[in-house]
Amino acid sequence: MATDKIITKKSLEFFEKYLNNASPTGYEWEGQKIWMEYLKPYVDEFITDTYGTAVAVINPEAEYKVVIEGHSDEISWYVNYITDNGLIYVIRNGGSDHQIAPSKWVNIHTKNGIVKGVFGWPAIHTRKDGKEQAPKLDNIFIDIGAKDKEEVEKMGVHVGCVITYPDEFHVLNKDKFVCRALDNRAGGFMIAEVARLLHENGKKLPFGLYITNSVQEEIGLRGAEMITQRIQPNVAIVTDVTHDTTTPMIEKKTQGECEIGKGPVIAYAPAVQQKLRDLILDTATEKKIPFQRAANSRYTGTDTDAFAYSNGGVASALISLPLRYMHTTVETVHKKDVENVIRLIYETLLNIKAGDTFSYFD
Questions:
Q1: Does 356 map to a domain?
Q2: 259 catalytic residue (yes or no)
Q3: Are 233 and 297 in contact (CB under 8 A)?
Q4: How many domains does the chain fold into?
Q5: pLDDT in tens, 2-30
Q6: CB distance 166 to 81 below 8 Å
Q7: Which candidate, 86, 283, 299, 313, has a CA 20 to 30 Å from the CA of 265?
Q8: Are residue 255 and residue 107 in the same domain, yes or no?
Q9: 344 and 3 in contact (C-beta within 8 Å)?
Q10: Helices (H), 201-296
Q11: pTM exceeding 0.85
Q12: What range defines the domain where residue 103 resides?
């Protein structure tokens, strides 16, 4: 399967629409609806749960179950405190970066719709040389143009309103995708494309495939924890993003070496089942799919951990997409890597046999 046939005009339009929609942790449902609508022609049924995880299922009657998974939520902020003169202080919803906030536009989500605001910051002329304060959680603030707290509340803004960045999808130099929330709606896109390709290529799998778009990963893998108990899979292949370590201020000695454009990253970690990982590595070699390796020490920090240690142990593996500038509004990935993650998951599924326990003792 050639990479130039993977991302179509239609699928790229879906990717852009899916990315541009806000899906902050705890508020993922509108994005899930877009994702499910796209997948509808390619799957047999859907499962959803109380908190918003969506699962598209192929062969739901099969006893042996394989999950391919990404997560749908993006980092955001909550309104935490409104001052008497109408300024808004925030707390994190996920790993939001306070240092990138000053001068950014924001969308505050209210029952009356979106209220626009800006993260204000004092002008350079007013700051003391050598004694400048860096942006911190307790000094960044949002201005929505209100004169006082009463006007803020009349606009529908209150403590607990969620706040997202409005930055939208762009293509940089023809083959780099740039947007907020590529972590990890790129994963949701890639697993959806696997389902589409299986359908369009007429591939019949000997097991049930559960294409899972989990919620609440950014605050502790919570959606995956919930949905794995419901699906009770035999195998889980998770895809998430990982750091490109070739940009400035990242230490390769501690973060490892990874670069966009050089292929999917296959993880080594205690939660990664070695025989399943070997199948993925063998598939990549057989199909001439470029790949990189990463060591993740005690845990992967992804939904892989939630699946692996559930239901008495699920054979799990992690295939990551290299990404620059994680948890900023200009997250950047390479088109070739997106295509090759799709290829690698697709080809690996074709090599999984129903009933395989991946046991070390067989």
A1: no
A2: no
A3: no
A4: 2
A5: 655 799 999 999 999 999 999 999 999 99
A6: no
A7: 313
A8: no
A9: no
A10: 222-231, 252-255, 274-286
A11: yes
A12: 76-164
